[in-house]
Amino acid sequence: MTTSMTKQLIKQSWDLQKVQEFATKMAAMQIASHLYFIESHHDKKSHHSQEIEAMDKHAAELKAEELKKDGVDSPLALVRHIAEFETNMHGATTSIEGDESSATLFNEKPTVWLEAKKLANMDEDQEKKMLHHYKKWMHNLGKAFDYKVEAELNSDSSKITFSIK
User: Fold this and answer.
1) Rounded Cα distance, 131 and 133, in Å
2) I need a labelling partner for 74 at 20 to 30 A (CA). Which of 11, 66, 89, 139 fits?
3) 88, exposed or middle or buried, with CB in 10 Å at 0-12, 13-18, 19+?
4) What's this model's pTM, rounded to 2 decimal places?
5) pLDDT tens digits in sequence order for the chain, 165 residues long
6) Neighbouring C-beta atoms of residue 144, cutoff 10 Å
């Protein structure tokens, strides 16, 4: 018995909510994988801890390069971009305040982070490790823009301020 299948063009059919759910789960899986790798290699006598930090720093620098190409040229433009991305891509609840020299991002409902905690079933120690890495990533992003960064992170929200030095 033979069957023949014709080529079918697949058209976009997911609504915004479904796209956000899958994008959030994908990003959360990356965080959970990051946590697994950190815990599997961090305490061992290896260079993995330094490699992880170097990888995170490079990722922040690449992000900054792309944002600069897109016209992000001030702390306010940076927090606006992050807030719009988190809100539109992941359904987060965000707000911003500030001006061209100092601006703050408030993530009142960080959907990716909350999904990652659930997916990885993080305990308090694991949460602290990942918050540390996220804070360091934000500092690396700010450094790539030559901004001062103040980050207040807790288990359910964040407040990050970027300022011109």
Assistant:
1) 5
2) 89
3) middle
4) 0.86
5) 566 589 888 899 999 999 999 999 999 999 888 878 777 765 555 555 677 788 889 999 999 999 999 999 999 999 999 999 999 999 999 999 999 999 999 999 999 999 999 999 999 988 988 898 899 999 999 999 999 999 999 989 999 999 998
6) 17
